[in-house]
Amino acid sequence: MSATTAMGFDDLFEIGDIDMFLNKAQEKCRHKLRGKTFAGMEKEDVTQEIMIKLVNSLDKYDAEKAKMSTFVDHLIENKIKDMYRKCMSEKNLSVVNAVQIMCTDQGGGDESEGSDIALALGHAGFAYENFEFVTDIMENMRLNEREKQIFKLRTSGYEFVEIAGMLGVSKARISQLWKAIREKYEVL
Q1: N or C: which end of the chain has fewer CB within 10 A?
Q2: Quick one: which of 156, 138, 150 has its CA closest to 91?
Q3: Which run of H or E residues covers position 129?
Q4: DSSP string covering 29-57, please?
Q5: Cα dist. 57→27, 37, 54, 156, 179 in Å?
Q6: Which residues lie closer than 8 Å to 98 by C-beta, 6 or more apart?
Q7: Do the Cβ atoms of 38 and 157 come closer than 8 Å?
Q8: How far apart are the C-alpha atoms of 19 and 36, rounded to whole Å?
Q9: pTM here?
């Protein structure tokens, strides 16, 4: 283990060992991302977004306001929150949850036989169609805005803990709201 490996962010930044500084920041990112998932994004992509933000923000660091370790920690936490917001945006969720429709002609070109319709996910070159039935269900259930948000996230594959982290509430609160959503669904 080299002497710079054991150094903190403040020391590494002070001596100008930017490579080691960034390696340490990248490890911190990976540690903070353990157990988290982002709809449609790999953790490595999120880590790279954080690293880009860090590199672009280094010139804004003011040693009189905070230690470098605090600066890095806050930057990582804030960028993770930004990435959650980006991942749970309507636009991203509609792309991530889009289902692709393609027609395949299995016959020898005889129109009387028709075409088979196949559903495929993630194959480039075909138009995507986003099914609106989730929105219809939410409207018929008369969910409030918070319940709609939770419903969208839950049906997108997020766990209660992840949703709680995104929305800044406890897992128990998300569980409670999910129970209310299920009760409204049962009434339908």
Answers
A1: N
A2: 156
A3: strand 128-129
A4: HHHHHTT--BTTB-HHHHHHHHHHHHHHH
A5: 18, 25, 5, 32, 42
A6: 128, 129, 130
A7: no
A8: 26
A9: 0.51
How is residue 138 written in tokens?
A: 């939410």
Q: What is the pLDDT along the chain (188 residues), one digit of tens a residue?
A: 555 567 899 999 989 999 999 999 999 999 988 877 776 678 888 899 999 999 999 999 999 999 999 999 999 999 888 887 777 665 555 555 554 333 444 444 444 444 343 333 343 433 333 345 555 666 677 888 898 888 888 877 788 888 999 899 999 999 999 888 888 877 76
Q: Which residue in this structure is represented by tokens 């991530």?
A: 96
Q: Contact 155/149 with Cβ under 8 angstroms?
A: no
* Residue 165 structure tokens: 């982290």
Tokens coding 136 = 């219809």
Distance from C-alpha of 186 to C-alpha of 150, rounded to nearest angstrom: 17
Handedness of CA 118, 123, 128, 132 (dihedral sign): positive
Structure tokens at 86: 């980006």
Which amino acid is residue 70, in one-letter code?
T
Rounded distance between C-alpha atoms, residue 54 and residue 142, angstroms: 42
Taking each helix axis from N to C end, the angle separating 133-141 and 145-155, rounded to the nearest 10 degrees, works out to 140
